[in-house]
Amino acid sequence: MRQHRVRTVRRLARAAVAASAAAAALTFGFSAPSQAADPSLREVAESTGRFIGTAVNDGLLSNGTYSDIVSTEFDSVTAENAMKWEAVEPQRGQFNWAGGDRLVQFAQANDQLVYGHTLVWHSQMPGWLQNGSFSNSELRTIVTDHVTTQVSRYKDKVQRWDVVNEAFNEDGSLRQSKFYQQLGASYIADSFRAARAADPDAKLFINDYNTETANAKSDGLYRLVRDLKAQGVPIDGVGFQNHLIVGQVNGQAIRQNLQRFADLGLEVAVTELDIRMRMPSDSSKLQQQARDYRAVADACLAVSRCSGITVWGVSDRDSWVPDVFDGEGAACPWDENYRPKPAYDALRDAFVAAGGDPGDPDDPDNPGDPDPPTGDCSAAFTVSNRWDTGSVVSVTIRTGQALNGWRAQFDLPAGVNLANGWNGAFSQSGRTVTVSNAAYNGTVSAGGTISFGFQTSGGAAQDGTRVSLGGQECAAG
Ligand code: 9MR
């Protein structure tokens, strides 16, 4: 977002980070983080039309230093554990939404997207499911009911879901999970269909690890998603976890692999990035780690359908790595004392190099991009969810002529502000909101559609608001 208001708010927020970090240092006995750079990661990412996210550990949100970094540096959050099946449905049919709801509220308060993780996964299943014995048809109903209930709960609040997680063996065959053993591969298509029915606007992903480059496992994943698409199964994207090792990152191979999935017409995303090293860390390992982070970020940014990057944890203090890999750690962009590491700078540099420096919007030398031309258009502006102080809107524009880059505009009611948006780069000036294409959805064929969505704060948007495309008002439609 380019508007001055947002930047000012964020500058103030960063000052608050420094202040509360100093307070936290007294409380927790570690030193205050050095001031993170300005503009923040989320600002440079938003200017490229991509998101930058982090896994969030629910228990740490009450730590001011932690939550300040999450809110000021990231525009997307993923629940590290709170939305997993064992957390959400600990007893059959009894749901515990506390952790997930907290994260969604945090995201709404901080203008962030939510990446939902994860609906159907062989790991972290509740005991009743793991150990229970069910007929095939009962198990199918259990799976689709769970997907339906959870996606419905967070309809219009979670923009992307890892519907199926880690379905593959290393050799590219499907993992012998309880789901696969009883239901065969059909559990995957059924899960996606249930998710689409519950929230038609959420982007539906399949997510896995060790699939970052071309290998037997990613080949198996490729064949599956190609076939799902061919069968009309509602899948939108593929998540690549990217739990990597310092010194073993091949950016070019990652880019090529992202591109082959993108060429199937799918969104791709880096969903769980961390890059671990053998401990103790030293400055040469940290420098290599920074180069490796940069390589992954550059790979995503080189692929127009790569919508964003999520890191798996803010700081080395919070990471899952040391618990699982003996003698390894220091995998995150912030260190144990919440100080940004060279890896943090590398991520920022990657977005800036991809055109992500928002610059100063008050600078007359920074006029923004010219309006691309458009022909006739019709637009549906639909408020899909509203509450006292906000709303969720989805906009679909049909264009009469082929576009290579687009810019849409509309007005919000007085006092209503744009909070966050997806599938476009958003800015607000007065009541007017301008949305231009993200890197991955600028090309639209004649008769094709543009879809984006956003949340408001301060009040609700109005159903049926008129939209213009390239300066021409679109018909209602
Ligand atoms: O980071 C998560 C850790 O706290 C949990 O104990 C663990 C349980 O399996 O899951 C970790 O997150 C995993 C993610 O959900 C799926 N991909 C691999 C991640 C790291 O194990």
UniProtKB/TrEMBL annotation:
- Which SMART domains does the UniProt entry name for this protein? CBD_II (SM00637), Glyco_10 (SM00633)
Q: Which reaction does it catalyse?
A: Endohydrolysis of (1->4)-beta-D-xylosidic linkages in xylans
Report the leader peptide range: 1-36
Q: Where is the active site?
A: 272
Q: Which residues form the CBM2 domain?
A: 370-477
Query: Record's Pfam families?
Result: CBM_2 (PF00553), Glyco_hydro_10 (PF00331)
Which species expresses this protein natively?
Answer: Streptomyces radiopugnans
- Where the record annotates domain GH10, the positions are 35-350
What is the E.C. number?
3.2.1.8
**What InterPro entries does its record include?**
CBD2, CBM2/CBM3_carb-bd_dom_sf, CBM2_carb-bd_dom_sf, GH, GH10, GH10_AS, GH10_dom
Q: What is the protein's given name?
A: Beta-xylanase
Name the Gene Ontology molecular function terms of this record: endo-1,4-beta-xylanase activity; polysaccharide binding
Family indicated by similarity: Belongs to the glycosyl hydrolase 10 (cellulase F) family.
Renumbered residue ranges of the record's region Disordered? 352-377
Keyword set, alphabetical order: Carbohydrate metabolism, Glycosidase, Hydrolase, Polysaccharide degradation, Signal, Xylan degradation
List the SUPFAM superfamilies hit by this protein, alphabetically: (Trans)glycosidases, Carbohydrate-binding domain
- What does the entry give for GO biological process? xylan catabolic process
Q: Where is the composition biased (Acidic residues)?
A: 359-368
Q: Which domain of life is it from?
A: Bacteria
